[in-house]
Write a structure and sequence with these properties.
- This protein is an alpha/beta fold.
- The chain has two domains: 12-140, Rossmann fold; 157-335, Glycogen Phosphorylase B (Rossmann fold, 3-Layer(aba) Sandwich), CATH 3.40.50.2000.
- Helices cover 37% and strands 16% of the residues.
- It has a six-stranded parallel sheet, sandwiched between helices. A six-stranded parallel sheet has the order 9-8-7-10-11-12, sandwiched between helices.
- α8 (196-208) packs across α14 (325-335).
């Protein structure tokens, strides 16, 4: 006779993630609490971000988010077959709300600013970050277990070795410390963009002070990286734009002496793996989305218009433009 299959009688919670790297990091404490409360967790997430969850050990099953009509129907069918008792819609889009309804879950919990919120039991949205996701737990009677994503993002040995090999192939001497820069927020260039000429000054000065510099970002950032590194004295900095799948990126940032970046995903990946950060905050609220852990430096002008969600900016990005390279470099030296 074939061996008997073990029956998993844990209740299933479907988690519908947002499509951003930082948001996946923010969700890790939520997933940790669900796991420790005895839930079987199923996550719907972008394929390129899924390795973070798969390596964390905090989810039992991952479904990749798709757009094509035929594949979408198959994805929706797989969601339905999970028979979730509860569904947490972390994103505000109508797609998440409708998928929550279609899932058949008895408890469908999301935020009061969500589209199609009639599909959901809503809780107040308070501005993003780890705390915002943890605010969903009381609706399920689940206690929080941790307040931070630090230590929850795991870098498997294979990706750690790949990161070391990538740095060496790019020209960084083996074992040499370096400062990582995450200068661009892809897709939000008009909202979270720090001037390229200021980044060039930072690169030049870091090199002048004896630091190696490594720029990270998506393939879409490559041209802006090249522009930043042009001009007199930009220094010998390396760009890894488009070369770092998410866990390789984590491996690179784990090796960095510090990360300097705008408030975007790589900052939270770096903080999660224990690297101290200098973070330039513009329109977003550092009280909600500052990196978790100790030892980070947050630069924030605190203008009357901050925080905001206005796009395009009515003040031509003044909140970031008024943070000088000298301020950034002074903050970096506090860490280095």
């Amino acid at each position: 006779m074939p061996p008997r299959r073990e029956i998993d009688d844990r209740p299933t919670c479907l988690v519908l993630h947002m499509r951003a790297l930082g948001e996946v990091a923010f969700a890790l404490p939520l997933l940790h609490a669900l796991q420790h409360a005895g839930w079987r967790t199923v996550s719907l997430i972008q394929r390129e971000l899924a390795p973070i969850l798969e390596a964390s050990g905090l989810v039992d099953h991952v479904i990749y988010r798709v757009k094509q009509p035929r594949a979408y129907l198959a994805m929706a069918g797989e969601i339905r077959r999970q028979h979730p008792r509860a569904c947490l819609a972390l994103g505000p889009g109508a797609n998440n709300s409708l998928l929550a309804r279609f899932s058949g879950a008895r408890d469908r919990i999301g935020y009061d600013y969500a589209q199609c919120r009639w599909c959901l039991q809503t809780v107040p949205f308070e501005g993003g970050g780890v705390e915002n996701y943890l605010s969903l737990l009381p609706s399920l009677g689940v206690p929080r277990t941790v307040d931070s994503y630090c230590g929850l993002l795991k870098v498997p040995p294979a990706q750690s070795k790949a990161a070391a090999a990538l740095l060496e192939a790019a020209g960084l001497p083996p074992g040499e410390p370096f400062v990582a820069l995450s200068p661009i927020s892809t897709g939000k260039l008009g909202v979270k963009a720090y001037p390229p000429e200021s980044w060039a000054v930072i690169c030049r000065e870091l090199r002048a002070r004896g630091h190696h510099v490594v720029l990270v970002g998506s393939a879409a950032d490559a041209q802006l990286h090249r522009e930043m590194l042009q001009g007199e004295g930009a220094g010998r900095a390396l760009s890894l734009a488009g070369q770092t799948p998410v866990l390789v990126l984590a491996g690179v940032l784990q090796r960095a002496a510090a990360l300097i970046g705008v408030d975007t995903g790589p900052v939270h990946v770096a903080a999660a793996v224990g690297t101290h950060c200098v973070v330039l905050f513009g329109p977003s609220d550092p009280r909600r989305t500052s990196p978790c852990g100790e030892g980070h430096v947050v630069l924030y002008r605190g203008l009357n218009c901050q925080p905001c969600h206005t796009e395009p900016c009515n003040y031509e990005g003044r909140c970031l433009r008024e943070l000088t390279p000298e301020q950034v470099l002074t903050a970096a030296e506090q860490i280095l």
